[in-house]
User: Which sequence fits this backbone?
């Protein structure tokens, strides 16, 4: 009598492809997954609790470390929430700087995703090409904020440092360079038969499932739902620029892949327009009181980070520290669909699907 | 003020922040009605003060919501003439904030106009030393009313895409000269009592909920002005599941997207705040559900919105609120054998000396 | 050398054989060392980076340092692993890899054993390595390595068949399994080599060869990003070095075999160039095959296991059979 057993396999927390310290307990029947349970919390650092004893400017560095691949948008969501509460006006130059760094950050984040996704799928070289291009963006950020990964750049009311002379020109030069690179990447990867066979039709879900699970970002738009907060709930200066929102149709990994690549193109478009309209002078900081003390009240500010809708819910009791600060993290919410998607898939597709969701574990655990 | 944790590098006296229109140091509900007007002048959000008055009225009707009206005007700040003068340059900040125009040019123009205007104001204010608020001259009031009206129109159009009620109110506000101050408050900038454009929506929702669910289902309802006039309701915990289903399936509200679910520890009770939106009709609402501290329990909405699954687990983990009906309520962030709920205000850390 | 092999076995001859064997062993080991080095360099250049540059001049001693490290490491055997099989597995993998090198003719006169079933000998021995891989996966007592071992068994067996069948056409054209005869049947111009008349067979052979080598795009058994290291995850130190050694010796063997079967062995590509010694041509073609394997590794993503199986059985195998049929028809019609 042959007796088969289900195999209980632990993917992570140390694993090359789980994008951080993250664990999935998987029950396998041969190569097919029958059940998958994500376990998280390995990177839980208690940001929300810490925030209750820090004033708002002190919380900004903590936001950098939540989604460390996309730190500028994290900075922005916090300062935007506080500015909403206090109705602070941000000068135009500062807002332009913010928008430019956020869009550059979107390109950088999508490049990281692209490189690591292809590395998971098995191609080693695109990873290095993506990081080479990301280096240019990181150097730009280094010039403007002094740091490569956790910038601590935005402040309530504006930005901390002005762009050094020549910085805008470097951004301007970066755009055609990146466009050329995107062409090369397309030719290298997007038509590759093996790659297409690996990705097409994998991890498919429909729009109703996506909305019910609260997905956002490319994970939602791959099903055809037109929901991009930069367009539907415009913040910053996004309503001044023309850009499209790429949508998918089938809701599989391939659509998510194409959408994110197209989003890089759209970000480059926005950057082009922003650099062209960049004001030549102006303050980098609005008039903000020395102690930032929002009036009692609450606000839920949300913006579109490269991963989806990142939200900052602040309850203030009029003090310099928030009473309750909650971050609605897109990776955390987007990950909930993983157990549902994985049933019936093989181990290989687990990696493909997990990479397609585009999570950063620092954000999953906050 | 004493209970604030001021940053240690402050060199200004502690009283200074009181002058700032952002709101007093102590945030106390219920003091609103007495002290709203005090900071009205310095309100960065001039247009809001009208709505705030309205909120105060509402607040007198409603119980403790746990949601502060956006500007908690708090206690009477003690003005000192010196400090007033000293922060004359700080005030232009708030003036600028007073009229958040949504176009840069307007902002720039106002920026020039207002500091001049208000710098002229400060000495007069400093001179007219008073316990509560400074009197405004007539033309300042009119100017401020106009600026406020513009600001309100601009904000309203930006937030709501322009509603009829708002624009109708605006001309009335603009043409109205300085009002006499209202009875319990100090003189108010002549903000017309412009109801929020979302007020009718909120009222309708409350009516419908009272009719369809239970007469006492809705404990409180306000419009959260700061947050883009988001209708905010407080629902009684025992009616929450029904209300959630109603919100999900009602053809007008059709809230299919649960954006955010967060636990809150208000010291006397725990609460969960839900932010819902309908992707089709773009109706959004924020719901507060309160529960007590000893046995906190709120019906789980995971069957309605599967996205609530891990959010509720996180809330359970960090606050201890049980969610009956949840398929798999166990800890998510902390390790499984953790004792205590870290985000509660009375949580004792294991290593509190650190 | 041919005469040497034909002579009877005396002590003196035996020593000479042994000496040649040692020389050849050094050649192979030197190849392995510098193949690893060049793989890292070439892939590095393709990825816009330098590759090893520090250890020794231009990084040439990098592999030496790596192998030294591996040999000096602690020999860990997991507690619950099946000890005997754990130790046996690497041996079973690398011994056949050396053994198959014997039949390959390097030049007209340089070759070790001219078996008249040379090709069959090659195919048979290389299958033994599959057993070693499966044993390694099982004996490690680790779920990841078990998965890797199972995948590897499935993959290697599935691709053996197209591999061997793709060369049947060559065998039919030459009427012999002996590798020397096959090379002799190819001419002094590149259009007389076997890869053009047997183009289908050549393509199938290349694909199946990459799969047999467990290299990208078919490196599922050691898919780093999924199974961490597949069947050799529990091996460390010199046992791991054996697996790596076996892989690179197989690279040598497959490239040499490709050169011999399809690329004309020691023949020059154009008849006018035959003043250049055959060994050099052999080395050049062989190097090109090795470079092609490295190039594939840098470029391609990995194929999924079910897609791999379906590709092997549903695409390669029918094509190989078609190739045989076409070759047979050609021989029959043109009475070669």
Assistant:
């Amino acid at each position: 009598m042959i007796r088969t057993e289900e195999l209980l396999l632990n993917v992570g927390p140390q694993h090359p492809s789980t994008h951080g310290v993250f664990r999935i307990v998987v029950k396998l029947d041969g190569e097919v997954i029958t059940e998958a349970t994500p376990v998280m919390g390995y990177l839980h650092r208690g940001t929300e609790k810490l925030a209750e004893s820090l004033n708002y400017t002190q919380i900004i560095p903590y936001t950098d470390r939540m989604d460390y691949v996309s730190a500028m948008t994290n900075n922005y969501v916090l300062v935007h929430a506080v500015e909403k509460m206090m109705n602070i006006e941000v000068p135009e130059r500062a807002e332009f700087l913010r928008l430019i760094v956020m869009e550059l950050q979107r390109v950088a984040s999508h490049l990281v995703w692209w490189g690591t996704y292809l590395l998971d799928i098995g191609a080693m070289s695109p990873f290095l090409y993506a990081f080479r291009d990301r280096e240019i963006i990181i150097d730009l950020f280094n010039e403007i904020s002094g740091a490569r990964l956790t910038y601590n750049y935005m402040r309530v009311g504006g930005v901390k440092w002005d762009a050094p002379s020549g910085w805008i020109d470097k951004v301007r030069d970066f755009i055609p360079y990146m466009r050329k690179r995107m062409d090369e990447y397309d030719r290298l990867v997007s038509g590759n038969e093996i790659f297409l066979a690996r990705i097409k039709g994998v991890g498919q879900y429909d729009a109703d499932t996506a909305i019910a699970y609260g997905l956002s970002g490319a994970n939602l738009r791959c099903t055809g739902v037109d929901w991009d907060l930069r367009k539907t709930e415009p913040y910053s200066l996004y309503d001044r620029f023309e850009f499209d929102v790429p949508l998918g149709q089938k809701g599989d990994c391939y659509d998510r892949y194409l959408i994110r690549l197209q989003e890089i193109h759209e970000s480059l478009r926005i950057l082009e327009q922003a650099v062209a309209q960049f004001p030549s002078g102006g303050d980098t900081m609005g008039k903000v009181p020395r102690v930032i003390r929002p009036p009692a009240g609450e606000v839920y500010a949300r913006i579109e980070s490269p991963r989806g809708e990142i939200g900052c819910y602040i309850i203030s009791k009029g003090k310099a520290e928030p009473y309750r600060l909650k971050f609605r993290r897109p990776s955390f919410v987007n990950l909930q669909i993983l157990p549902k998607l994985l049933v019936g898939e093989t181990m290989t597709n687990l990696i493909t699907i997990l990479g397609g969701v585009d999570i950063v574990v620092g954000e999953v655990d906050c | 003020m004493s209970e604030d944790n001021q940053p240690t590098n402050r060199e200004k006296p502690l009283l200074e922040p009181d002058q700032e229109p952002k709101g007093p140091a102590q945030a106390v509900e219920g003091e609103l009605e007495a002290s709203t007007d005090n900071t009205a002048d310095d309100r960065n959000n001039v247009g809001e003060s009208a709505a705030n008055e309205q909120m105060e009225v509402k607040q007198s009707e409603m119980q403790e919501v746990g949601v502060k009206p956006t500007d908690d005007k708090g206690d009477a700040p003690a003005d000192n003439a010196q400090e007033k003068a000293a922060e004359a340059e700080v005030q232009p900040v708030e003036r600028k904030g007073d009229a958040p125009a949504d176009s840069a040019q307007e902002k720039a123009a106002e920026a020039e106009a207002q500091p001049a205007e208000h710098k002229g104001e400060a000495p007069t204010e400093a001179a007219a030393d008073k316990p509560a608020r400074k009197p405004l001259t007539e033309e300042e009031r009119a100017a401020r009313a106009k600026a406020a009206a513009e600001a309100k129109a601009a904000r309203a159009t930006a937030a709501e895409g322009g509603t009829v009620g708002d624009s109708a109110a605006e001309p009335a506000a603009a043409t109205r000269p300085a009002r006499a101050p209202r009875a319990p408050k100090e003189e108010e900038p002549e903000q017309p009592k412009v109801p929020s454009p979302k007020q009718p929506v909120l009222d309708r929702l409350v009516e419908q909920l009272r009719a369809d669910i239970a007469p006492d289902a809705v404990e409180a309802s306000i419009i959260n002005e700061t947050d883009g006039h988001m209708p905010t309701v407080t629902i009684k915990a025992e009616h929450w599941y029904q209300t959630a289903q109603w919100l999900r399936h009602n053809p007008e509200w059709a809230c299919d997207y649960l954006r955010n679910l967060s636990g809150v520890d208000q010291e006397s009770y725990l609460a969960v705040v839900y932010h819902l939106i309908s992707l089709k009709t773009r109706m959004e609402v924020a719901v507060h559900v309160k529960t007590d501290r000893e046995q906190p329990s709120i019906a789980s909405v995971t069957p309605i919105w599967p996205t609530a699954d891990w959010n509720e687990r996180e809330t359970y983990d960090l606050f201890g609120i049980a969610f009956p009906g949840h398929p798999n309520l166990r800890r998510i962030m902390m390790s499984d054998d953790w004792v205590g709920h870290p985000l509660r205000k009375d949580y004792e850390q294991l290593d509190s000396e650190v | 050398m041919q005469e040497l092999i034909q002579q009877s076995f005396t002590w003196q001859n035996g020593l000479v054989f042994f000496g040649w064997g040692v020389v050849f062993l050094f050649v192979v080991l030197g190849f392995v060392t510098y193949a690893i080095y060049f793989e890292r360099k070439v892939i590095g250049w393709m990825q816009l980076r330098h590759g090893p540059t520090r250890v020794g001049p231009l990084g040439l001693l990098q592999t030496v340092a790596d192998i030294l490290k591996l040999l000096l490491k602690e020999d860990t055997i997991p507690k619950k692993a099946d000890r005997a099989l754990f130790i046996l597995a690497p041996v079973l993998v690398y011994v056949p890899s050396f053994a198959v090198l014997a039949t390959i003719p390097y030049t007209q006169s340089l070759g070790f054993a001219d078996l008249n079933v040379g090709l069959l000998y090659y195919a048979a021995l290389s299958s033994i390595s599959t057993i070693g891989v499966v044993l390694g996966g099982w004996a490690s007592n680790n779920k990841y390595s078990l998965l890797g071992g199972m995948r590897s068994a499935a993959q290697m067996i599935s691709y053996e068949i197209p591999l061997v069948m793709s060369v049947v056409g060559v065998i039919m054209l030459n009427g012999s399994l002996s590798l020397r005869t096959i090379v002799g049947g190819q001419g002094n111009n590149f259009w007389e080599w076997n890869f053009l008349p047997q183009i289908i067979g050549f393509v199938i052979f290349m694909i199946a060869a990459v799969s047999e080598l467990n290299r990208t795009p078919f490196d599922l058994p050691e898919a780093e990003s999924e199974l961490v290291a597949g069947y050799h995850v529990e091996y460390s130190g010199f046992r791991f070095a054996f697996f790596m050694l076996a892989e690179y010796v197989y690279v040598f063997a497959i490239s040499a075999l490709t050169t011999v079967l399809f690329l004309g062995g020691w023949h020059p590509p154009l008849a006018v160039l035959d003043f250049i010694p055959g060994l050099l041509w052999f080395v050049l073609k062989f190097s090109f095959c090795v470079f092609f394997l490295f190039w594939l590794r840098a470029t391609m993503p990995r194929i999924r296991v079910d897609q791999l199986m379906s590709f092997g059985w549903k695409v390669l195998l029918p094509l190989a059979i078609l190739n045989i049929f076409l070759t047979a028809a050609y021989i029959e019609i043109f009475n070669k």
Summary: The mean pLDDT of chain C is 86. Chains C and B do not touch (no CB pair under 8 Å). Residues 176 and 182 of chain C are 7 Å apart (CA to CA).
